[in-house]
Amino acid sequence: MEATKRVSMFALATAIVAIALASPIQPAAQTVAAKSSAGENSFGAPQWSVQVGKVDPGDLAVASSFQIAIYESLLDELSKTKQFKQVLRDGDRNAGSVSDLLILKTTVQQYTPGSETRRAVTTVSGATKLTVRSQLCTREGAVVLERTINGNVRFMGSNLRATHNLAHNVAKAIKQSSLPDLAHAAPAQNGQI
Amino acid sequence: MNRKTIPPYRALDSYLLKGLPALTFWTLLILCSDGALAQAASVTLDTSSSVHATHLLGFQGAKNNAKGTLSIQDNALQFQDGGKPAVQVRVKIASVQDVFLGEQSKQVGGLPMTLGKTAAPYGGGRVVSIFAHKNYDTLTLEYVDADGGFHGAIFQLDKGQAEVFRNELVTSGAHVTASENKPAKRTTTEVVSGSN
Questions:
Q1: Quick one: what percent of chain B has pLDDT higher than 70?
Q2: Contacts of B15 (CB under 8 A, 6+ apart)
Q3: Domain covering A47-193 in this structure, CATH number
Q4: Looking at chain B, which terminus has fewer C-beta neighbours within 10 angstroms, N or C?
């Protein structure tokens, strides 16, 4: 009986840890930005709009599904931050009429496809890793913000989850950095996350 | 002299009783995985231009990870969400710019199976993981909306169906580049860009 109890307690504890690991931690700061009105950020300053460019695989053989997943996840996550007045897609004709537009360029620097089965069997190997260089540029080509950002899946979840994690980190990095005033763009801020 | 001899049938009985919790656990685990496998096996090609698929992400208006039917009707690509209420999303085939095929291996059974495997004693879950995976095809579409905005959508199909469906799309007039004709198998080799 005691052995059964011990096994059930162990199973329960493992389940709690697994659920805690699976659910991403939501930073409290997100709720502040969510309340900001359209066209203005949380400090009341006018907002930029952003156009998300297609993902550049560089000279790496990145699967098309990964490129698309990064692109779509970026659009999703940037919209969630409420940091921008508009989040536009690559090639959107409406971008021409938007005055305060930043363009997000994403270049893949490192890519390990990984394997969900290997992760499940070995725990320590089979991680899916993505490293990208994200640049926010003005229409004139001036780099406003530049970051190297990672997105990985190490334990649970499908390989494509790495793209979601990556996009979440990109959005977080943009949110935490101070974008220049609309009138004059500041020199590029570099860093790695 | 005082030693009691346990008859063979009693020894077997106590052995079975001791192993009962483990037996229950494994039975539940197998039943769980059985259900998942049966569900996956039910994914079949209905007609030549209609296929059961899981929408992973990107198709505007459809929920992520929604199961439904992907079909070609009246020069449009249509995804009918199987959930309640049923949602129908359509994209003109002429706006499809490219179609890519891929392949991925996924663990079956979802979260219950994962939790079961984690709780299994003596690393038994790892052994289950070796067998509890299934290969799927992925169908990646690139299309543009009315404003010229670029969209991407990824669908997960049963193995061997993505190529058939892509051919159907090509026949219906979708534009496809010849670069990725066959499902690309993934390797786990790390690749680093030389431009660093």
A1: 64
A2: none
A3: 3.40.50
A4: N
- Given a contact cutoff of 8 angstroms between Cβ atoms, the answer to whether A170 and A149 are in contact is yes
Calpha distance A130→A153 (Å, rounded): 9
Going from the C-alpha of B100 to that of each of B76, B166, B167, B193, the distances in angstroms are 18, 8, 11, 22
**A126 Cβ under 8 Å from any chain B Cβ:** yes
pLDDT tens for A94-113 read 999 988 899 999 999 999 88
How far is the C-alpha of B103 from the C-alpha of B125, rounded, in Å? 25
The answer for B 83-112 residues in CB contact with A (under 8 A) is: 100, 102, 104-107, 111
Judging contacts by C-beta atoms under 8 Å, the chain A residues touching residue B152 are 67-69, 71-72
Check CB contact under 8 Å for A90 and B147: no
Spans of all domains in chain A = 47-193
Name residue, tokens 């897609």: A89
pLDDT confidence bin for A24, thresholds 50/70/90: very low
Residues from chain B contacting residue A97 (CB–CB below 8 Å) = none
> What predicted TM-score, i.e. pTM, was given to this entire model?
0.72
Q: Where do the domains of chain B lie, and which CATH numbers do they carry?
A: 8-172 (2.30.29.30)
Phi, psi of B150, deg, nearest 5: -80, 130
The predicted pLDDT at position A15 comes to: 61
Please indicate if any CB of chain A lies within 8 Å of the CB of B8. Answer: no
Distance CA B65, CA B20 (A): 37
* pLDDT, tens digit, 9 for 90 and up, residues A176-190: 888 877 655 544 455
